[in-house]
């Protein structure tokens, strides 16, 4: 019997989530320090964070230390058997603060297993690429997981222990029951036009006349107050665990709001990778555009390739 599009959706998401089991094997019966937890309002990173914590919980991974990207306690990391870097799309020279942190940790712990959760790699500067390669390649037990083939080709210069791996947000599956997957024949579209407003935005013209939305539109005054409160207290290392716990509650709230907002729509136009991933987790009809440097299509081609819920939009080129 031919597989339904709902069954194909479920099978694909089960497959992507199951692949994270390889990472779990590297952490079995070890104490783990998890660093570079995203302290900002990019919901994509908060989805990765939520997926990572769901992964830790489901696989009984013993995380004994957590930290943001500043004021990382290297003495606490010394007591961890494994160090895990948060995944995402900030490996390279677009977001240098995060890259400098990883380089500092790699240099400080040459004999400790270090794992980089799934990333997209991008360097604009060959000089910065080579400098970073020199630092990472000197480490004998660095395991790097990447989200697409282009990143994999770059990662091989950083470590022989590199492997293709889907985004950690897939460990959130299932967010909906298979019966809730939207029909592929939408007769009454309710459209969400999710478009980037940051350095990765594109000027793609879509065939709809509707204002765009980005993650920042979900924020409330309380979100901004809470964020400023954490920033103000970050220098006090004795408060680190309490701040992490407070942010986790706030992050989960932001993810919950995002899911509820997406569930008001059945069609999503997006040039955001996690707009795409969340829409797919929620079984929406998706109109997918690339970002400024090919991240979205690299991910789609690596892990999805085709699905009846997804249309890839290609901008017409002028003659």
How does this structure look, described?
By secondary structure, this protein is α/β, with parallel strands linked by helices. The protein folds into 2 domains: 5-171, Rossmann fold, CATH 3.40.50; 175-312, no CATH class. It contains 11 helices and 11 strands. Strands 1, 2, 3, 4, 5, 6 and 7 form a 7-stranded parallel beta sheet that branches. Strands 8-9-10-11 form a 4-stranded parallel beta sheet, with helices on one face. The protein is globular, with a radius of gyration of 20 Å. The mean pLDDT is 93.
Structural class: alpha/beta
The profile of the biggest β sheet is: 7 strands, parallel
* Named CATH architecture of the largest domain: 3-Layer(aba) Sandwich
Average pLDDT for all residues: 93
Radius of gyration: 20 Å
Under CATH at level 1, the class of the largest domain stands as Alpha Beta
Task: Describe the structure using short key phrases.
11 strands; 11 helices; Rossmann fold; 319 residues; 40% helix; 2 domains
Note the topology:
Layout: H1 5-18, H2 21-27, E1 31-35, H3 43-58, E2 62-67, H4 74-78, E3 82-85, E4 88-92, H5 96-108, E5 113-122, H6 126-136, E6 142-146, H7 149-155, E7 162-164, E8 191-194, H8 221-233, H9 240-262, E9 267-270, H10 273-281, E10 285-288, H11 295-303, E11 310-312
Parallel strand pairs: 1-2, 1-3, 3-5, 4-5, 5-6, 6-7, 8-9, 9-10, 10-11
């Amino acid at each position: 019997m031919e597989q339904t599009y709902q069954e194909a959706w479920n099978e694909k998401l089960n497959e992507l989530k199951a692949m994270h089991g390889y990472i779990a094997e590297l952490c079995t019966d070890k104490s783990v320090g998890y660093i570079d937890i995203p302290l900002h309002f990019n919901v994509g990173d908060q989805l990765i964070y939520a997926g990572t914590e769901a992964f830790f919980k489901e696989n009984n991974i013993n995380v004994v230390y957590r930290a943001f990207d500043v004021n990382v306690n290297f003495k606490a990391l010394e007591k961890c058997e494994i160090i895990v870097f948060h995944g995402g799309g900030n490996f390279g020279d677009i977001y240098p603060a995060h890259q400098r942190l990883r380089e500092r940790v790699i240099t400080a712990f040459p004999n400790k297993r270090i794992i980089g959760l799934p990333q997209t790699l991008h360097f604009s500067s060959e000089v910065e690429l080579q400098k970073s390669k020199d630092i990472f390649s000197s480490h004998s037990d660095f395991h790097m997981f990447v989200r697409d083939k282009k990143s994999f080709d770059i990662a091989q210069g950083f470590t022989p222990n590199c492997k293709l791996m889907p985004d950690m947000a897939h460990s959130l599956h299932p967010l909906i029951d298979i019966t809730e997957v939207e029909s592929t024949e939408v007769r009454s579209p309710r459209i969400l036009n999710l478009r980037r407003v940051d350095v990765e935005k594109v000027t793609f013209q879509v065939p709809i006349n509707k204002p765009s939305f980005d993650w920042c539109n979900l924020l409330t005054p309380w979100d901004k107050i809470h964020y400023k409160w954490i920033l103000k207290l970050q220098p006090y290392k004795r408060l680190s665990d309490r701040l992490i716990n407070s942010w986790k509650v706030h992050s989960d709230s932001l993810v919950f709001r995002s899911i509820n907002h997406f569930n008001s729509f059945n069609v999503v136009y997006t040039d955001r990778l996690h707009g795409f991933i969340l829409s797919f987790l929620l079984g929406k009809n998706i109109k997918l555009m690339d970002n400024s440097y090919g991240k979205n299509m690299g991910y789609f081609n690596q892990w999805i390739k085709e699905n009846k819920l997804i249309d890839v939009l290609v901008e017409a080129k002028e003659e």
